[in-house]
């Protein structure tokens, strides 16, 4: 049972803090935080919209509208954003922007969203050394706020191949290191979309092909996911919920 602790006065100026002591047995992850990355046309958007019924999904798209044509029959509400200002207008308060009942927010794709921020800050900041710091801080603050939302958060990104110190390639999300550090620490799932012909998801690191991926399954339940799973987030979310019970 949670217990509220009211700290004693210590001479510090300001209102007293109210902090809740909880028990880990009460934990219940109600919402999924997922990054899907891969090549163009690897099924990222289709997979992202598979976690719940289409009527409960809202999409923030940085892509031309024809990129969503394959979702037409699903009837999903979406908004297309073209600039950093439009991105912030939606993501600063998605519950206010999108009406109706919904429980899943899809951002498609975050690689292009970061490019919007780069364009904005290059125009606003004369000192080039400060541009990437501004991008890092702004993207991090926005993403941290979204992670506190009462909805599933599904983010897509492109892939890129990087070489390590031994000149061996790693396939990773095409995102800045600062953004990836936040996603790695805060998101429960990072899945690699394998694309055609099977359109499966890589659920954990592939050391043979050197693909970055991972999940937060408990150590005693790591086999709840196969190394490669069908691109069905609803099914994977159910497996995860069962594993943590």
Automatic annotation (TrEMBL):
Lineage of the organism: unclassified sequences, metagenomes, ecological metagenomes
Protein name per Swiss-Prot or TrEMBL: Uncharacterized protein
């Amino acid at each position: 049972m949670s217990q509220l602790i009211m700290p004693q006065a210590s001479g510090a100026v300001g209102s007293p803090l109210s902090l809740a002591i909880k028990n880990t047995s009460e934990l219940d992850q109600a919402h999924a935080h997922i990054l899907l990355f891969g090549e163009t046309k690897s099924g990222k958007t289709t997979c992202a919209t598979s976690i719940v019924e289409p009527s409960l999904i809202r999409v923030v798209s940085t892509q031309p509208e024809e990129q969503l044509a394959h979702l037409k029959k699903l009837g999903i509400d979406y908004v297309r954003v073209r600039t950093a200002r439009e991105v912030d207008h939606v993501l600063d308060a998605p519950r206010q922007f999108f009406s109706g009942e919904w429980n899943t927010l899809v951002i498609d794709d975050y690689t292009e969203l970061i490019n919007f921020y780069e364009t904005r800050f290059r125009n606003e900041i004369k000192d080039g050394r400060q541009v990437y710091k501004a991008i890092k801080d702004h993207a991090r603050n926005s993403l941290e706020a979204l992670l506190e939302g009462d909805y599933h958060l599904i983010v897509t990104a492109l892939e890129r191949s990087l070489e390590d110190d031994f000149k061996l390639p790693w396939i990773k999300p095409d995102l800045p290191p600062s953004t990836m550090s936040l996603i790695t620490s805060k998101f429960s799932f990072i899945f690699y979309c394998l694309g055609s012909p099977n359109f499966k998801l890589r659920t954990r690191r592939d050391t043979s092909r050197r693909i970055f991926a991972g999940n937060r399954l408990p150590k005693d339940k790591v086999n709840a996911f196969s190394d490669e799973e069908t691109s069905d987030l609803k099914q994977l979310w159910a497996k995860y919920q069962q594993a943590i019970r």
